[in-house]
Amino acid sequence: MPVTLRVFGAAYLSEMKPLLDDFSMRNPNINVQYRWMSSEELDSHIRSGAEPQPDITISSVMHLQLRLVNDGYASEPVQFLDQGTSEHSPFPVWSHWRNALFGFSFEPAVVVFNKAFVQDKEVPTNRTELLGFIRQHSEELMGRIGLFDIRKVGIGYLLWSFERQQARNYGQFLELFNYHYARTFDSTRSMLRALSEGQIAMSYQVVGSYANSWQKLHDDIVVVPMEDYTPVILRTAFINRTTQNTEQAKQFISYLLSSPGQWVMAEQTNMPPIRLDVTGEKSAQYMRQEFADQLKPLPLDVRLLVFADKSKKEIVITEWESALKNYD
């Protein structure tokens, strides 16, 4: 009888399906049940002990993942054979934490435009240019800038908090977003759909893998990484403490980190693989070599706990709400 392995993820099934299919083909004795949840729902579900609990948890919302592991919701640390020694590991040292939380993709956040809107315009490539672009096309952008609702969307909150630390022109963006009646969205899909339909003209800080997948299907958006700095998040996985299928869970994460699994990511998904020995334009290794000065990966370490702190979150959200008084 096949063992059922429950994988709960804040990653769209469309992105994960090639990996799930290949793993199932290689492991016919394991029946993978994949369930999508928003990052906030996933965090709450695990903490409440609601049934069923997952065997493996996957999310790009790094601060929530790290806090779950830090709070004891992960299994005992696991040293996967494929990690190799520290000197010769195919993984960057910053891609895993305490041998309990494992980054398996390297995903830039981008600005996305409606293609028809920018057809006869010079597309901005850094934040200074973007501020000028918004001011220059102010009338056309009224009510047509899309943002994540950081009160509801975990990745939106994480990226906004990181932006708050990094950007010197952070306050100017808040002012312009407020002035232009920026619209808020509670999912990536709803924001990209609004872009495709021309309801909005631009979106700020969208996970690049989702934007690139959407672009392949619809070809009515333009995806632009900002050259002054591009935030990068790691999509991470951990084995849940409550699992009764430890060995099968280890097999699944071993597969995500393996060369075959990472090559499936490189060739069949838009999630850039994190292994240093997987190359190609969509790989972390290529991006880090070509755009080293541009990429700003969020740290997979205890510094993320600052973003998870309740009082800190209240400060960020209160500031955001106060500045964006005209959000819908």
What is the number of helices?
Answer: 14
CATH architecture of the largest domain: 3-Layer(aba) Sandwich
Would you tell me which CATH topology of the largest domain applies?
Answer: D-Maltodextrin-Binding Protein, domain 2
CATH superfamily of the largest domain: Periplasmic binding protein-like II
Helix content: 40-55%
Beta-strand percentage range = 15-25%
Distance between the termini: 51 Å
Radius of gyration: 20 Å
Q: In the residues, how many domains can be counted?
A: 2
Supply the CATH class of the largest domain.
Alpha Beta
Number of strands: 11
Describe this structure in words.
With 328 residues, the chain is of the alpha/beta class. The model has no long low-confidence stretch (mean pLDDT 93). Strands 1, 2, 3, 4, 5, 6, 7, 8, 9, 10 and 11 form an 11-stranded mixed beta sheet that branches. The protein is 42% helix and 20% strand. Helix 1 runs antiparallel to helix 11 and helix 8 packs parallel to helix 9 (208-218). The longest helix has 14 residues, at 13-26. The chain has 2 domains: 3-106 and 232-303, D-Maltodextrin-Binding Protein, domain 2 (3-Layer(aba) Sandwich), CATH 3.40.190; 108-231 and 310-323, 3-Layer(aba) Sandwich (D-Maltodextrin-Binding Protein, domain 2). The protein is globular and about 60 Å long. The chain contains 14 helices and 11 strands.
